[in-house]
Amino acid sequence: MLKYDAILFDVDGTLLDSAPGILSTMEETFRQMGVDPAGLDLRRYLGPPLRRTFGEHFLDEADIERATLLYRESYKRRGCHMCQPYPGAARMLGRLRDAGLILCTATSKPTEVAAPILAEQGLAPFFDRIDGASMDASRDTKTDVIRYVLDQPLLRGRRVLMVGDRAEDMRGAADCGLDAAAALYGYGSRQELEPFGPVFYLDSCDQLADLLLGAPAAK
Length: 219
Description:
Largest sheet: 5 strands, parallel
Structural class: alpha/beta
Helix content: 40-55%
Number of domains: 2
CATH topology of the largest domain: Rossmann fold
Strand content: 5-15%
Number of helices: 9
Order of helices and strands: EEHHHEHEEHEHEHEHEH
């Protein structure tokens, strides 16, 4: 018997290797905002909400919003196409869906941004819901996103597992009383994720389905 009824997935670093587009867009945005990105560790910003990222560099709320808008405009034109699914992602999602699990996203990307990317990469059909942050600041943290998804009728009363690769995913799951699985193939390290006590550490997409379904994928 399956321990969970539904799985929530982070997107960047969990389903999609989207680092090239994010890093390129982040570099461009900082330059437009007058910040030299050469001395910045931009990989730190793979995962956290944009406003938190830009809030580390700009004190004025107007500048944070301007940087967020510049990033989103550029990312929509070019960066969103610079990604690809991790090996085995589609196979894993298909196996979980075939087993009767409800599949949803809980991403820091706004829903309007995440949905077309997942469609372009062929992953959208596997999901019962694609949900993420709001375009404004009203639903901006991973905790807020997860709470929003859990409040949907489809998930009420369900046993839910959150899968992600960064501390924000683990913290959001903990805040909402969920178990979490840590995707070590993504952008976060074991050292970053371990303090949150994830129930699984995953070295590949296929491993999640293997652990939940109790059998490896057919070769």
